[in-house]
Amino acid sequence: LERLGSLGAATMYAGHGDPITDPESRLRALIDHRQRRETELMDALADGPRTVEELRKATYTMLPEPREGLADQQVLSGLHKLRDEGRVRADGDRWARA
User: Fold this and answer.
1) Residue 83 sits in which domain range?
2) Which of the chain's ends, N or C, has fewer CB atoms near its CB within 10 Å?
3) How many CA atoms does the CB half-sphere of 89 hold within 13 Å?
4) What is the pLDDT of residue 19?
């Protein structure tokens, strides 16, 4: 997202929805949202290791059941980023703070 912002584009075209005519603002909102999710994941791991499902239930409250799989993928993506940054680690199917 930050690399996209550095391009200085006047308009962005996503895979769905209308063209984005204020990319800087939209990208900032997306980055802020991702950072909030990372904070939620780290907070959820404060009490010890958890599975992706447990983390999803802690961070994606009020989610309709058909969307749980998508949310699991978002959680896993966030965990991979945090792992790459050295902030979390995986132990089998459980994740913990590093």
Assistant:
1) 2-97
2) C
3) 4
4) 97
User: What phi and psi, each to the nearest 5 degrees, are found at residue 20?
Assistant: -100, 110
Placement of tokens 């966030």 in the chain: 78
DSSP code at position 12: B
Q: What's the structural domain count of the chain? A: 1
Q: Please, which residues have CB within 8 angstroms of residue 55's CB and are 6 or more apart in sequence? A: 41, 44, 45, 75, 79, 95
C-alpha 26: how far from chain center:
16
pLDDT along the chain (98 residues), means of 10: 90 94 94 96 98 96 90 97 98 98
